């Protein structure tokens, strides 16, 4: 019996160039983003400028986490306590958590068979809920039809915030993920596409929103020290009206991220190479279903999802157990209890008047998830696929 022996949580080492840059920052002792000698451009300032240029937007703010970026994105957009915010029911807990932290109310939207948000349910709730904001998660790297989403937002005058934690480097019809909405938020947490342990970006084309976000992030009156920011005149009144919710990125994390950002295109290609090996292997089993991805979606697959449509809960538990015995770690989004990073929408008990989302529950009931760290090579992916297929076929028989 073949056994897989690598860890599903071991990422690649930080590049040597990033380590050298980090050591240089440590030697200066100037870790705080605003601690610089005269005339010096800090790593955080430069990282913001470089990410804005990479994405093709004028403004970028580096912060402590993707979840923090989500929270101040909503506040900068004008979200107030009691506001209703459209949100994927199939997402990770930091998304509804960020909404709750602003005092707003999530309006959960059903999931679809392609693991994206259900666009018919989105349109119905955009029409009927009185929500003026939409927090769209590109969950696990799956991008919904952005053409129709923008039509819905335009029709109902909805402010769109893109949660791009899983889509840095991805595109829809050639347009960068994160450049459709009014604001986009990205994550640099260890399991994302560039790794600083924790960290995030907020990007926008709106100068007033960026000015508010910079003040929220804890700039004090040092807002003129941002390179990917609007002119200081934009801050004239905003600086007095915006509270400080300190969540700045530091120069050490920025130094670690800058070389990784320069190499992101090659890294995205490597993730997809591994994804395609796994996808081809999984498709050899009739028990495993992987939705076809649309031609307009240029995804980055740092994880893979599949459904075992004909399995009951006991069979799914058996598949997880049998694969784990052979070294393959599968996560299940349909579990009644939150486990690790997976949780079903109805476990978020802080949401009042929790809806019953039958379609989402049916989809999550058989939905499996697996990370694809770049520490795996193509032969590893082939072996993983063989193990999962063997166990799935044995259970199906």
Describe this structure in words.
The protein has 397 residues and is α/β, with parallel strands linked by helices. The chain folds into 2 domains: 16-262, Aspartate Aminotransferase, domain 2 (3-Layer(aba) Sandwich); 264-396, Aspartate Aminotransferase, domain 1, CATH 3.90.1150.10. 39% of the residues lie in helices and 13% in strands. The protein has 13 helices and 13 strands. A 7-stranded mixed β-sheet has the order 1-9-8-5-4-2-3, with helices on both faces. The longest helix has 19 residues, at 264-282.
Short note summarizing the structure:
This protein is an alpha/beta fold and 397 residues long. The protein has 13 helices and 13 strands.
Break the fold down into its secondary structure elements and pairings.
Elements: H1 16-28, H2 43-55, E1 59-63, H3 66-77, E2 84-88, H4 94-101, E3 105-109, H5 119-128, E4 133-137, H6 146-155, E5 159-163, E6 171-172, E7 175-176, E8 183-187, E9 200-204, H7 207-217, H8 235-241, H9 251-262, H10 264-282, E10 297-298, E11 303-307, H11 313-325, E12 331-332, H12 358-365, E13 367-371, H13 378-396
Parallel strand pairs: 2-3, 2-4, 4-5, 5-8
Antiparallel strand pairs: 1-9, 6-7, 6-10, 8-9, 11-13, 12-13
Q: Report the order of strands and helices.
A: HHEHEHEHEHEEEEEHHHHEEHEHEH
For the record, the count of structural domains works out to 2
The structural class is: alpha/beta
- Average residue pLDDT: 97
Strand order of the largest sheet: 1-9-8-5-4-2-3
In oligomeric terms, what are we looking at?
Answer: single chain
Number of helices: 13
Gyration radius from CA atoms, angstroms: 21 Å
Number of strands: 13
Q: Regarding CATH, which class of the largest domain?
A: Alpha Beta
Shape: globular
User: Largest sheet, if any?
Assistant: 7 strands, mixed
State the helicity in percent bands: 25-40%
CATH superfamily (homologous) name of the largest domain: Type I PLP-dependent aspartate aminotransferase-like (Major domain)
User: Which fold name is given in CATH as the topology of the largest domain?
Assistant: Aspartate Aminotransferase, domain 2
Strand content: 5-15%
Termini gap: 19 Å
What is the CATH-assigned architecture of the largest domain? 3-Layer(aba) Sandwich
């Amino acid at each position: 019996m073949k056994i897989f022996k690598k860890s599903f949580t071991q990422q690649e080492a930080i590049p040597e160039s990033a380590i050298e840059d980090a050591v240089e920052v440590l030697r200066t002792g100037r870790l705080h983003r605003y601690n610089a000698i005269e005339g010096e451009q800090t790593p955080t300032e430069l990282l913001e400028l470089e990410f804005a240029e990479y994405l093709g937007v004028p403004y970028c703010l580096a912060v402590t986490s993707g979840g923090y970026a989500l929270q101040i994105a909503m506040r900068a957009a004008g979200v107030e306590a009691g506001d209703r915010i459209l949100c994927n029911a199939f997402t990770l807990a930091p998304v509804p958590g960020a909404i709750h932290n602003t005092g707003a109310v999530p309006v959960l939207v059903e999931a679809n068979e392609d693991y994206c948000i259900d666009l018919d349910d989105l349109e119905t709730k955009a029409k009927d809920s009185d929500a003026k904001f939409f927090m769209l998660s590109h969950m696990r790297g799956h991008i919904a039809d952005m053409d129709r989403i923008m039509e819905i937002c335009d029709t109902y005058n909805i402010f769109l915030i893109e949660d791009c934690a899983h889509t840095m480097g991805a595109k829809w019809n050639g347009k960068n993920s994160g450049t459709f909405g009014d604001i986009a938020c990205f994550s640099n947490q260890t399991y994302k596409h560039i790794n600083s342990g924790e960290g995030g970006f907020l990007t926008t084309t709106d100068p007033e929103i960026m000015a508010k976000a910079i003040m929220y992030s804890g700039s004090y009156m040092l807002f003129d020290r941002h390179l990917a920011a609007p002119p200081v005149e934009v801050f004239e009144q905003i600086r007095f009206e915006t509270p400080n919710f300190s969540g700045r990125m530091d120069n050490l994390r920025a130094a670690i991220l800058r070389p990784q950002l320069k190499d992101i295109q090659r890294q995205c290609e490597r993730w997809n190479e591994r994804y395609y090996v796994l996808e081809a292997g999984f498709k050899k089993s009739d028990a495993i279903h992987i939705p076809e991805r649309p031609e307009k979606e240029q995804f980055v697959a740092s994880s893979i999802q599949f459904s075992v449509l004909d399995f009951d809960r006991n069979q799914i538990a058996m598949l997880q157990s049998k694969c784990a015995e052979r070294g393959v770690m599968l996560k299940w989004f349909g579990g009644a209890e939150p486990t690790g990073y997976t949780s079903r929408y109805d476990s978020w008990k802080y949401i009042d008047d929790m809806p019953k989302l039958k379609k989402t529950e049916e989809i999550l009931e058989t939905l499996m998830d697996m990370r694809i760290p770049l520490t795996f090579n193509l032969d590893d992916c082939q072996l993983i696929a063989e193990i999962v297929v063997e166990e799935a076929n044995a259970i199906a028989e």
